[in-house]
Amino acid sequence: MAKRFESAELVYDWNTQDPLPRPAQVEVSDETLRDGLQSPSISDPPIEIKLQALHHMAELGISAANIGMPCTGARPKQDALRLAQEIVKAKLPLRPNCAARTVVSDVQAIVDISQASGLAIEASTFIGSSPIRRLTEGWDFETMLRHTEETISFAVNHQLPVMYVTEDTTRAQPETLRRLYQVALDNGAYRLCIADTVGHITPHGVRQLVGFFREEIVRDRSDLRLDWHGHNDRGLALANGLAALEAGVDCVHGTILGIGERVGNTSLDQLLVNLKLLGWIESELSSLKTYCRLVSEYCNGPLPFNYPVMGQDAFRTSTGVHAAAIIKAKALGQAYLADRVYSGVPAELVGRRQRIEIGPMSGRSNVIYWLESRAIPAEPGLVERLFDRAKRARAVLSEAEIEELIAEYRRATGD
After folding, report:
1. Which of residues 270, 298, 326 is at a domain's end?
2. Residue 182 and residue 271 in one domain
3. Closest among 138, 214, 222, 204 to 181, alpha carbons compared
4. pLDDT for 124-156, tens place per residue?
5. Which of 226, 261, 292, 331 has its CA at 20 to 30 Å from residue 385's CA atom?
6. Are residues 269 and 382 in the same domain?
7. Measured on CA atoms in the order 375, 380, 382, 384, is the torsion positive or negative?
């Protein structure tokens, strides 16, 4: 009987030495159907696909869903209504929200959808806050404060929960943030969102900024929730989202495959995988693969071959040393070993599997494994033919190429 191994026997995990305390609250908000669709390279999918996306969110244990910005046109408003109705009909455990500028007419569109669907929809009202944004727009600060007061009061008076968002929070002055958020709180906002709108901040800056919010704005208000919304312009969105949770935010926003404005948002799929590996969420992630493929296909979302976890090569190797280790691990009768010996993320976590290919960096063990995994006898002559061709190739051999080589071998040997 094969020996069963425990994780601690096989991996010395530096991530768990003096471990980070698990955050008291870990929520994830899916912005794929709003911010994700703002990319000029992304296609707005039909409502049937958006409904499928909504169900994937619920399956993955996602807390909240941004269902659109209905003030931008008739179709976005109709789609947001249909999504709200689906949440009610299917009893999906999602907190819906819609984006709006800090303008009463924008919030009115959310009120219309809320009343038509019978669902309390969170109004995610946003306003620019950084000096560069205010100078460019020519905004007077007192006017900004007045718009904040009027808009939030209007939403609250129409029984909408309100999340107040300052755009470009990560480049705004402390006093500006204190005054804007205080007016928002005074008028009934229950949720505050810090936005790294242009992907400016680093993980160190995140800790400083969230610490400021916890000490200066949230203080001891246990009923107040704090969100983080980040963009990936410096390639730091995922690290920043994790740093924000470490520092004390309750919810991190993201999009599937990181689609969104410019280079995109925090990659929601990568965020979920990391939260799962940290032990901070209990969600079952096997359907994540299907959700990512849905977005890639119907939104024209990019899925590079080397994209973490979901890319074609995430669990695929043709290198002899790597393949040999995976094969030896499988031979021990422990799928656990094979899924981790050369992988920091277990393929099984997201419903995928390890794949071994044949190419110029391969060893004979690659060839033997490839054949035997397809119930093809690994005859020495056939192994040598495939191995020789692989060594002379400039890339991994395709399935069709290997099948043709096998057919040639059989014709030559009379099999």
Report:
1. 298
2. yes
3. 214
4. 999 999 999 999 999 999 999 999 999 999 999
5. 331
6. no
7. positive
